[in-house]
Amino acid sequence: MTFMAIGLRGQRMGNSARSIVTAVIALSLGTADARGQERQISSPHYLFVATNDGDADKLGPWPLDRRVHAAAIDRARQDGAKAVILKFFFDRPSLPEADAKLAEAIALMPVYLQFAFDGGGKKGEDPPVWRHDLAPATLTALFHSSPSLLPLALFEKNAAGLGFVSALPDPDYNRIEILGTSGSGIAASLQLLSLEASLGTQVSARDMRLTLKSKRYPIETDGRVVCPYLEGGRPQEHSLFAFLKAQVPKNQVRDRVVIIGNTRRDTPRFPIPNNTSLPVHEVFFRQILCLDRLT
Asked: In 69-218, at which residue ranges do the beta strands (DSSP E only) sit?
């Protein structure tokens, strides 16, 4: 069984992460960009913010200085956001002053970070990713190594939660990771944590059913739920630069979960039907909107 990590590092990539990125780019060679061909839809519960091609000359070289991520968290907090989801790996040190600034911002509001299974890089001896409230009895042990690419301790200690972003093959484009395990425990995906951040409560996933308010959805033995995430239109997206400059109206931020990713042209891409492709973080945005529709 093959799978890939669909996050990006917040600093220089190691060999394993680089090979993941190369694989995703290789899958999409020769495909056209599907962005701009669909109507954009906004969400009353989420705000999608991404570094795009127009930001490249304004925010500095990639990977971005972590003080930029800290400033984005501060902007979200000042504008009344519920929480922030960062779609980047922060498993290696960068400039000490930049790391300190990001850690300080994470401590001031709910911020969710990501890790991977079988992603290489740093592994935790006793990683704080297992959820004892998630106990589906028949979940298959899908991942063959312990959690990796874990956030540095100074980020993890004040994070609201850690969610995995390892993605299983999905030829029908209609299954979204909810739960994962390597046999040691059950972990929540970053998609599930995003949903919980919006709802303001932990979601029940016992007895292989995802319970959202009064609705229940089957969880497959590989930890996924059925949700056709390519349907419904393209998520409305704001540039990170515009967000930092307070050019996004506060009423579009207040009481929403702000998800920050990267959709630049050179980012890894996810092939979709009709010989087209999408940035992997836009696929994540679409999955969140799909799960939100289930509520």
From this structure: 83-86, 88-89, 111-117, 147-148, 161-164, 166-167, 175-177, 179-180, 187-188, 209-212, 215-218
